[in-house]
Amino acid sequence: MKLITEQDLRAEIGGKDLRSYRVDRGTIVTPSARQYLSDRKIELLVGEEAPAQPTRAAAPLPPGGAEGTEPKRARFIGPDGGTFSEKPEHLTHLSGNRLVTKGHPRIAFRGRMDSLQSKIMELQVRAVELGNGVLAEELDELLDFARSLLAAEVTGRPVDDVPLLGLELDEIRAMSHNPKKTFGLGHIRPHYSMGALCVGLNALRSEVREVELAAFRAFSGNDGALDRLDVLRALNRLSSAFYILMYRHLPAGFDKEF
């Protein structure tokens, strides 16, 4: 099965004046190649009776295309390196004017981050309903951190290393690794008796773990190297922060531990 890209068309057509371009049935013409033909008012014809080669126009077109209009300026770069004057519906922005498919690993990661933020806000509403405004405010701090983390990934900036819940990174790591020293209770064995808010915090903690997996897929290179280690480190820290909040808001007398 033959594949025709925009680069193929540019090399084959060049400055020729064409009215149509014919390909064999079953040939794959990439979206950017189709856009290239459309911008130049060249009709794409599909049929078995003719080889995939350009058909000359009977007369040259006026400068700039049909009716003397200027071709639309290419504004976006597609996944295969082709260009588009308008963003196709099946593609989305990765950064700048670069477009990728909506199934791209980094787009999937951003979707998971968006879902995480939504779930944090849901638990904030629940906390307020149950009269725990303290937890709602603590969650607001983690929500802001999640938002800044996503913004850093989109723009390419490093993730800011700021305190969370009044704790530095080393403190968060130490408390989450050895909670008994700080809270007098070993690692929590999740149980319904924790109550709705701690069960919700546990769900957020595990959700961040899923986001970490999405980040790993998004930033793993073919050679096994990892980009954006700062993003992965920040997610690990965020997961630990949710774990610490569970200890802070456990009901009195809770003693289930591993």
Plain-language structure description:
The structure is a single chain. With about 260 residues, the chain is mainly alpha-helical. It has 2 domains: about 5-100, no CATH class; about 105-250, Up-down Bundle (Hypothetical Protein Ta1238, Chain: A), CATH 1.20.1200. The protein is built from 8 helices and 9 strands. The strands form 4 sheets. The chain has a 3-stranded mixed β-sheet, covered by helices on one side. A two-stranded parallel sheet has the order 1-3. Strand 6 (about 75) and strand 7 (about 85) form a beta hairpin. The longest helix is centred in the middle third of the chain and has 25 residues, at about 105-130. The chain is elongated and about 80 Å long. The chain starts with a strand and ends in a 10-residue tail after the last helix. Residues about 50-60 have low confidence and may be disordered.
What count of helical segments does DSSP give?
A: 8
Q: Provide the low-confidence segments as ranges.
A: 50-62
| Shape annotation | elongated
CATH overall fold name of the largest domain: Hypothetical Protein Ta1238, Chain: A
What's the architecture of the largest domain, going by CATH?
A: Up-down Bundle
- The number of domains: 2
**What is the helix fraction of residues, given as a range?**
40-55%
Please tally the β strands and state the result: 9
Helix-strand pattern: EHEEHEEEEEEHHHHHH
User: Which structural class do you get from the secondary structure elements?
Assistant: mainly alpha
Mean pLDDT: 85
Q: In CATH's first tier, which class of the largest domain applies? A: Mainly Alpha
